[in-house]
Amino acid sequence: MTLRGRLTAAFLAVVLGPVLLGAVFVGTTLAAVDRSRSTERLGLAASTVRTSVDALCQQLRAAADAVALRTDPAARAGAATQVVSRGLAGAVLVTDVAGTTTYATPGAPPTPWQDCSGDRTAAGPVRALSARVDLRDPAGLALGTVAAAQVVDPAFVARLAAATGVAVTLLDGPAAPDRVTHTTESNRVREAVLAAASTVDGDRVTETPDGRYVRRLGPSPGQPLPLVLSVPGEQPAGLPAVLVGAVLLAAVLAVLAAWRLARVTTRPLVELAGAVDRVARGDLTARVPVRSRDEIGRLAGAFNRMTRETASYVAALTSSRDQLRGHLAVLGDTLASTHDLQRILRVILHSALAATGARAGAVLLLDPDGVLVGQCAEGLDGRMPDAEPLRVPVGTGVIGAVAATGEPQRGRFEPAEAPAGEPCCETYVAVPFTAPGGAESAGREPAVGVLALYDRLGGVEFDDDDLATLRTFAGHAAVAVENVRVHEEAQRLSLTDPLTGLWNYRYLRESLRREVERASRFGRMLSILALDVDRFKRVNDTYGHTAGDVVLAEFARRVRGEIREVDLAFRQGGEEFVVLLPETDARGAAIVAERLGAAVRDTPIVVDEHVAITVTVSIGIAVFPDHAGTGQQVLDAADEALYAAKAAGRDGYRVTGLRPDAVTEEIPVPAGSVSPDDELPRAGPAATRAAEGSSRQAAGVPAPAPGVTQPVTGGASSGPHPPRQSRGR
């Protein structure tokens, strides 16, 4: 063989070898990458399904708990109706200890329902997903169960598919993988997907002949639904034929060019082939020396530029991935460890800024007046006119339009074109978020908030990838808002009486301890009124328990209307109530008792258009520290005074006697120097009372009797305080 032949053969070997290796490498790599990415997508989809079903089960469990807290059947039915109307559950079922249904909301799906625990209740398709809680009386005796359910229908499966981004199929059961209850699969691939699903179990992923990847999910504890997830492969169709054609084309071109390049030294080619092999093994630091300015030299220079750009791109992708993982980890920890909405929103905003490279941003929530109010912001200094707070009415400007339509917006405008009341910027992107379950397919409800970012680094506009990233963070913000609201509502329900709206006995004990500690620390008085509706049993026996409930509710409303904002009213149980009057002495408490008695006695309570009931109230008064030294003792003293008021003929009040070691002197605090118009004595330090005495004498008003204290208008505050119940008096 001649030298040219040997050089040609060498050239063909050098050129076609890497081409063939590259084709095989590309083919196998694309297939492996396709399977890896599809498996990852199915894994993320499975996690999303478990999270969604678990969140739904927790919501149903909370709804069932809310119904089970009601001790009265009528109240329980009302609570069940309210739970369904608010969308917390699709149906509520109450059963007794024998399993007999005692109440079911209208339109409830047929039983049995699939329990969230994962145990199958019956063979056949899953009609509803439910969570059950035990129903017990105040003594702890089991009365039955309360079940809250969500209907499992095609819309439910469609929502799971939309949340996960994959096709979802609900099977009749784990033992019947070929029977489908609901599915989002097309008819063309459904049979192939079901056939593939019947051959796998656990977390394994299989592939259908047409290139779809399939995974079975559940049933399992926390995810009781038997599901099949599938995604289409991303490998282009006909890839092997394209690779073979590319190799053949390269071979033909190499043969045609080999005879012209046979005289060229093989050293640059050997170097280039070695560098290509290193890159194929993952070494992106490989470089080829440029020894000439001909085609070989230009090829070497292009190869060096390609590897540098590829290395930079891979490094940027790795850094971006690590940064995003870090932000998502911080966000997940924050969502799991706190109910502080402001902190959660700040973490979400900071993560969104870091993930998109924006210079500024804000999170706005919708208030009851229909105005979007900025909850947290970053980088808006100098962007708002006159440093005004961020408040945007729904439907106004870019942010208001996003909240009204529920559609995200992105774009660019000049600073002079920025809508009034919104930050000045060149580029922007705004994404709405709604509470879970807040938007229906038939009509979109206004968003509960908007996440807006401004001026991306580099001056380029925000793209679709940024929009997808912000949708993720907006989803986290929506879940955070809903979780905080549910937490606050659960706290409120656990501390209030459902019939009267007053605080319950549990919160009475906590408030009494707190107010006694406050009064002791600042040397103040605390008065306790124990109230009992007179002859309430006669009302129930004569007019029925429904009328009795109306009387108690109206009685509570009148009590709230006669006390101050700082005072606290409680329902202790039955027709017994308690009122705490901070910084009030016995005289002030007696005045309040007289007003409460008159408010109840003077106006009959209208039950319906034919029945009006006149009731009276007996009141016992005790004062800390005059009558007792601890919260429980002063409450017992008020009860004893209440019994005395009952024994004295009812419709009145009695003040318990002073204890022998009572300390009545208070520490000096600022107080008003002028008595109120009603000339009632006011409790306070001696210096203040002396000042009032001087003002009374100057005004010609007689001084109060010796030993009578007068209530002060100011007051100390200690620790967190619950929401006030009244409008004051």
TrEMBL record:
<dbReference type="Pfam" id="PF00990">
    <property type="entry name" value="GGDEF"/>
</dbReference>
<feature type="transmembrane region" description="Helical">
    <location>
        <begin position="237"/>
        <end position="259"/>
    </location>
</feature>
<feature type="region of interest" description="Disordered">
    <location>
        <begin position="666"/>
        <end position="729"/>
    </location>
</feature>
<dbReference type="GO" id="GO:0007165">
    <property type="term" value="P:signal transduction"/>
</dbReference>
<dbReference type="GO" id="GO:1902201">
    <property type="term" value="P:negative regulation of bacterial-type flagellum-dependent cell motility"/>
</dbReference>
<dbReference type="GO" id="GO:0005886">
    <property type="term" value="C:plasma membrane"/>
</dbReference>
<dbReference type="InterPro" id="IPR029016">
    <property type="entry name" value="GAF-like_dom_sf"/>
</dbReference>
<feature type="compositionally biased region" description="Low complexity">
    <location>
        <begin position="697"/>
        <end position="713"/>
    </location>
</feature>
<dbReference type="InterPro" id="IPR029787">
    <property type="entry name" value="Nucleotide_cyclase"/>
</dbReference>
<keyword id="KW-0472">Membrane</keyword>
<dbReference type="Pfam" id="PF13185">
    <property type="entry name" value="GAF_2"/>
</dbReference>
<dbReference type="InterPro" id="IPR003660">
    <property type="entry name" value="HAMP_dom"/>
</dbReference>
<keyword id="KW-1133">Transmembrane helix</keyword>
<dbReference type="InterPro" id="IPR043128">
    <property type="entry name" value="Rev_trsase/Diguanyl_cyclase"/>
</dbReference>
<dbReference type="GO" id="GO:0043709">
    <property type="term" value="P:cell adhesion involved in single-species biofilm formation"/>
</dbReference>
<feature type="domain" description="GGDEF">
    <location>
        <begin position="524"/>
        <end position="658"/>
    </location>
</feature>
<feature type="domain" description="HAMP">
    <location>
        <begin position="263"/>
        <end position="315"/>
    </location>
</feature>
<dbReference type="InterPro" id="IPR003018">
    <property type="entry name" value="GAF"/>
</dbReference>
<dbReference type="InterPro" id="IPR000160">
    <property type="entry name" value="GGDEF_dom"/>
</dbReference>
<protein>
    <submittedName>
        <fullName>Diguanylate cyclase (GGDEF) domain-containing protein</fullName>
    </submittedName>
</protein>
<dbReference type="InterPro" id="IPR050469">
    <property type="entry name" value="Diguanylate_Cyclase"/>
</dbReference>
<dbReference type="Pfam" id="PF00672">
    <property type="entry name" value="HAMP"/>
</dbReference>
<keyword id="KW-0812">Transmembrane</keyword>
<dbReference type="GO" id="GO:0052621">
    <property type="term" value="F:diguanylate cyclase activity"/>
</dbReference>
